[in-house]
């Protein structure tokens, strides 16, 4: 163990982060904040950053959302596997694998220390580029391939859904059976092929070619769990998640609704001409705006990844006259994440504008989400942005 302790002591956080193309700490001491490497859903939380204590080798890391904590080996395990340690702590093969990787990064044995100078950071850190989502139909595991057509079994008739699912869909009149069937959205009974329990509404996720990559579920008990969490004093590590994603799916690599096949639909081409690429946060936002004949695509988060930014820029330049319109959730977390997106798009010389916010239009849309917008409200927004001339 002394050998391992020495290895941890002599290897800097910067050396490990540089090995995975992660942004490096800007200082030598104090705290460094970064995206959680253990659970992608942490990015959905306003508290979803991983704190790295540069001066504390024993308690090196802590995620404010999923609660993972540990030393440099734990951080390395997350960077390598994108999952937390089994049972919450590195043991057995996971521990051995992390130690072996740390030896490789640090330059081999402890008797030959690596150069002490700070490694040169890569010119453009792009950690997401190493992550790939494989279409289920091409997956190497037969069980995964069998799920490629699971969307065909989703129930879109509220009369056949669970009470929770039926209530959720009825509260959204625009969520018609035809729309749900088109997008692969619906409820599925608990059976051997179901990835989610009956208290989830299931969504199908596709790549730009339209191939099924994975599925996610909207927790129909989320609001109840959220209120209970607030009542309990917001305990760390127990914050409920609105959406559940299948393990191994890298949602930051994709845009929901980014299928190139949508360009064949006349309303999509007209929407892109008028508004550019409309970017929203969630799947329901995309579905609602389609019913208004607005072509939108979603981050499935309030924070963009570099890959998503690059894809939006490409779509804008190729199909939307270099224009993008942002419709964040009009709350603090939603607007904070989209401010970052606006800045990154502007840096790419994209013509980007804000469709609405909590303070625009005399605060009319404070705390609202695109999925709740009415037809009259949409016409109001369009008129205010593009008033008719006499």
Order the strands across the largest sheet as they lie in space.
1-2-3-4
For the terminal residues, how far apart are their CA atoms?
80 Å
The helix/strand series, from N terminus to C terminus, equals HHEEEEHHHHHEEEHEHEHEHEHEH
Low-confidence stretches: 108-118, 124-129
How many distinct folded domains? 3
Q: What is the averaged pLDDT score?
A: 85
- How large, in whole angstroms, is the Cα Rg? 23 Å
CATH class of the largest domain: Alpha Beta
- CATH third-tier fold name of the largest domain: Dna Topoisomerase Vi A Subunit, Chain: A, domain 2
Structural class: alpha/beta
Question: What summary fits the major beta sheet?
Answer: 4 strands, antiparallel
**Count of helical regions:** 13
* Share of residues in helices: 25-40%
Strand count = 12
The portion of residues forming beta strands comes to: 5-15%
Query: Which CATH-level-2 architecture of the largest domain?
Result: 3-Layer(aba) Sandwich
Task: Note the overall shape.
Answer: globular
């Amino acid at each position: 163990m002394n050998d391992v302790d020495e290895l941890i002591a002599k290897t800097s956080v910067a050396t490990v982060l540089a090995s995975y193309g992660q942004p490096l700490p800007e200082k030598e001491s104090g705290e460094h904040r970064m995206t959680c490497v253990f659970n992608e859903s942490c990015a959905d939380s306003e508290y979803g950053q991983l704190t790295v204590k540069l001066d504390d080798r024993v308690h090196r890391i802590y995620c404010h959302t999923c609660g993972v904590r540990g030393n440099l080996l734990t951080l390395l395990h997350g960077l390598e596997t994108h999952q937390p340690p089994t049972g919450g702590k590195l043991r057995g093969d996971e521990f051995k694998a992390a130690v072996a990787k740390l030896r490789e990064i640090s330059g081999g044995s402890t008797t030959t220390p690596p150069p002490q100078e700070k490694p040169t950071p890569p010119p453009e850190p792009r950690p997401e580029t190493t992550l790939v989502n494989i279409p289920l139909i091409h997956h190497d595991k037969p069980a995964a391939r069998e799920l490629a057509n699971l969307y065909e079994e989703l129930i879109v008739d509220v009369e056949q859904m669970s009470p929770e699912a039926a209530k959720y869909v009825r509260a959204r009149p625009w969520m018609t059976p035809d729309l749900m069937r088109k997008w692969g959205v619906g409820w599925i009974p608990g059976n051997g092929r179901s990835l989610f329990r009956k208290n989830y509404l299931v969504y199908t996720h596709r790549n730009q070619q339209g191939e099924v990559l994975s599925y996610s579920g909207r927790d129909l008990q989320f609001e109840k769990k959220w209120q209970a969490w607030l009542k309990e004093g917001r305990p760390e590590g127990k914050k409920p998640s609105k959406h559940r994603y299948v393990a191994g799916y890298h949602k930051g690599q994709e845009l929901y609704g980014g299928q190139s096949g949508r360009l064949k639909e006349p309303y999509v081409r007209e929407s892109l001409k008028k508004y550019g690429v409309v970017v929203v946060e969630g799947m329901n936002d995309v579905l609602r705006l389609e019913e208004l004949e607005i072509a939108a695509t979603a981050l499935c988060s309030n924070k963009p990844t570099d890959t998503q930014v690059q894809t939006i820029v490409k779509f804008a330049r190729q199909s939307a006259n270099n224009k993008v319109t942002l419709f964040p959730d009009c709350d603090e977390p939603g607007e904070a994440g989209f401010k970052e997106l606006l800045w990154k798009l502007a840096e790419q010389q994209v013509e980007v504008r804000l469709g609405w916010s909590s303070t625009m239009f005399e605060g009319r849309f404070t705390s609202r989400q695109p999925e709740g917008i009415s037809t009259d409200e949409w016409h109001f927004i369009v008129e205010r942005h593009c008033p008719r001339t006499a």
